[in-house]
Description:
The complex is a heterodimer of chains A (293) and B (280).
Chain A: H1 3-13, H2 15-44, E1 48-49, E2 56-57, H3 63-69, H4 74-107, H5 110-125, H6 128-139, H7 144-151, H8 163-187, H9 191-199, H10 204-232, H11 236-241, H12 249-258, H13 263-286
Antiparallel strand pairs in A: 1-2
Helix pairs in contact in A: 4-8, 4-10, 5-8, 6-8, 8-10, 9-10, 10-13, 12-13
Chain B: H1 4-31, H2 49-56, H3 58-91, H4 97-109, H5 112-126, H6 132-157, H7 160-168, H8 173-201, H9 205-210, H10 217-227, H11 231-255, H12 264-279
Amino acid sequence: MGARHRLSSAFWRRPWLKAALLLTPPLAAFVLVYLAALVSLFVSSFWSVDAFTGKLIHQWTLQNFHDLLHSNGTYLRIAGRTIGIAAAVTITDAVLAFPLAYFMARLAGRRVRALLFVLVLLPLWSSYLVRIYAWQTILSHNGALNWSLNKIGLPDANLAYTNWAMWIVFSYVWLPFMIIPVFAAVERIPDSFIEASGDLGARGRRTFRSVVLPLALPGVVAGSIFTFSLTLGDFITPLLVGGNSSSFIGNVVEDFIGINGNIPFSAAFATVPVIVMAAYLLIARKLGAFEAL
Amino acid sequence: MERKTTRAALLGWTVLVVLFLWTPLAIIAVYAFNSSNIQVWPIPGWTLHWFRVAWRDPDVRSSLWLSVNVGLRATGISLLLGTMAAFAIHRFRFFGRESISFLLLLPIALPGIITGMALNSFYVFTGISFSIWTIVIGHATFCIVVVYNNVLARLRRTQTSLVEASMDLGADGWQTFRFVVWPVLSTALVAGGLLAFALSFDEVIVTTFTAGAQTTLPIFILDNLKQGQQLPIVNVVAFAVILLTIVPVAISVRLTRDTGVLRRGAATVTAAESVEITTV
């Protein structure tokens, strides 16, 4: 028996050795780079930057957070806008996604369902930047939207570079993230539940409200986590389709890193979406929306 | 169950939403053939001129090359590390197993800007200067999970009795891997690799923080869009990027059809579930 055989029986006899060998490289890479980076980001939010030399000062301070709160409300307004639009986008996507997910899960035949699946997934995977750009051209003055409006006799809609534009584009870009979990949740509702509801005398609307909606809610919440979180952390959409006063948290953060090189202040502001997401997850859990997932 | 009008309404809604999802992509495809260099709808005429211009543009070429290069390296790293992690998680039960799954999902559950900033500050603090590897590392962090998910899903569907039978018949670990595990796994690896490449190829948020002065294809698009320059070339590049990301995904959908892996979708649902696990 060769060395190869001895080696493979050695592994067979000590499974933990194999587990350790398999896990160490990915984990070490992850912990050393990604987690270390996250921790250093968090820690740096309590540091500051020397105004003259631009060097980091490794001294604990709450100055960054103080500046965020006392800036004539500029940063608070930006945080409010970011969170508000994220919430509007989440609600819009839920409304757009639900009927489609319901149709896909309960009415469509196997082939139609498979087709819809691909039609929903491919846009999700095609470039996110390109999809935002597509909307920039559609909403522009000479774009497809105004052309279509004029065709049916309506005046131009000047949506380009407004908060409305951001709302449309975000809803568009993240929509598949809502459709898929809602579809999965609706698909899991047993047919017998809906039949039972009908047998007990409930009309369509009542069945929907008392049976389908509560059972599909976990899917909506799962989807909302992503529409909400992705909007909170974005800065490309405000940059490309937002107006002069459409800055998001992400834009401020990017400016402070790119132009000012002020990592500590950026890090402090970046804690806002992280904290909001943590709170969002806790509230979702309090509502009991996760338990059926 | 549903009344006829309800069915019709649901179908109509579905068609409208699908049109909403695809119209912008179709419009970009049309603009790539725009004969005018002004962005007007509808386009005044059709031409292939801008494809030639874009193909000859040195900036487009160098950024395309960088994107492909980064994509291949990030895919290689994710295939290696993602598969290892999937094997370990599948075969062994140990303390902290759930949190490893969660850890790997973090980079796509957290907004990209957090990952980007974190890596940026890490590079700045440790004095690592920007290079192709700083981009590759950034991309690999969120590509690993795609490979991991695909491989894990395939492993879970494979019966362990196959491996045991192979061992009983006298095959050693290597032979079992080569003749039993590998044939089962190969399409999942190809699918995972293609998805990882597609993810890396069009990534822009993390890249803005980890590229320094280097220009990947999405960064090239973003820079030109910010300044409203060279839009005819951007149209062609955007069209190419759509094709280059959709084709690998379509292939991998076919390869994993029976696994029912929802790719990003599955990752999001799993992420939501693991987020739940840690908050409980």
